[in-house]
Automatic annotation (TrEMBL):
Transmembrane parts of this sequence: 21-43, 73-97
Subcellular localization, as worded in the UniProt entry: Endoplasmic reticulum membrane
GO cellular component: endoplasmic reticulum membrane
Keywords tagged on the record: Endoplasmic reticulum, Lyase, Membrane, Transmembrane, Transmembrane helix
Domain Fatty acid hydroxylase: 170-303
One BP annotation, GO: lipid biosynthetic process
Name listed for the protein in its UniProt record: aldehyde oxygenase (deformylating)
Domain of life from the UniProt record: Eukaryota
InterPro entries xrefs: Fatty_acid_hydroxylase (IPR006694), Sterol_Desaturase_Related (IPR050307)
EC supergroup of this enzyme: lyase
Amino acid sequence: MTSKHRCPSAIKEVDLLEASPFHLAFLISFPVALASATMLPFASISEAEAALGRNLTAAETVWFRYSAGMHDFWLYAHNIVFLLLVYTLAPLPVALVELRRPRAIHRYKLQPKIHVPVADVLRCYRNVVKTFVFAVGPLQLFSFPISKWAGIRTGLPLPSAWEVAAQLGVYAVVEDYFNYWLHRALHCRWGYEHVHRVHHEFTAPVGFAAPYAHWAEVLILGLPSFLGPAIAPCHILTFWLWLVLRHIEAIETHCGYDFPRTPSKYIPFYGGAEYHDNHHYVGGQSHSNFASVFTYCDYIYGTDKVIWHHLFIVYTCTFNMQTSGVLICLLLDNCRDTDITKHSL
């Protein structure tokens, strides 16, 4: 929305937000003052249609009715609500099936001999919620002026499906690249011992453990998610969708199961649960599979490793020890350079 469609008080605020980055320090100090104002881009739907030169779509009508009287600060504050909702609900289906009918999905379990106690999952959930509320939440709210300066918009028109798809593609590639290097850096001795080891407490990850980490790591690895929208600014709805999808993806890769025919199976160069499970299985000694979404960075920089430990687990669960011993020797002979042969077998 351009400022000419705002009420006079809104115009003054937009000018302050967009005039210069030097205003950011001042605005960050007064988020409550920003939240007390009301944004009224258009007085009515008919005024909005006159400004756009067409009728509003059904989606735009719903968005207008929801957001017209709400300050952008409160719209941006929805971010933390979505994070908490997705984190609470997305891992539940697998967790409930594993609790009530574990045999139904046991064949898809990546580490079938490992069972994570319910008490550990509940402890994980409490710790993550605390991190979201006391670390991620304040960062989200205090970064509101930066989002306005970067160009995250809230008005009309809404973006087209093609625009949303293109922006999400850019965000995924940008986030994956920078997340790769930050994650890899956290595996240096100091980074792992002081920060990243918390996340690797779950050598057999579960969905609820996706964001389970030291609060500093949550903030560090969360930054790449905002680089894409800063490079290619989007509508707040696209931004919400990006956060939700990225969070669901992280939960899937940590779920501990490799289900067939999931939608992510059709994404080119997608890593998935099996790829990341290998990283957790090796733990602090891992020097591979750092990518968060895709595998191209690991391939380009030589840190992609074949997941031999899953073959080892399957064979030891299926055959007798004599047969497994022969297979282990074959694996050791053919994959001496992988992390799992160096450090685990």
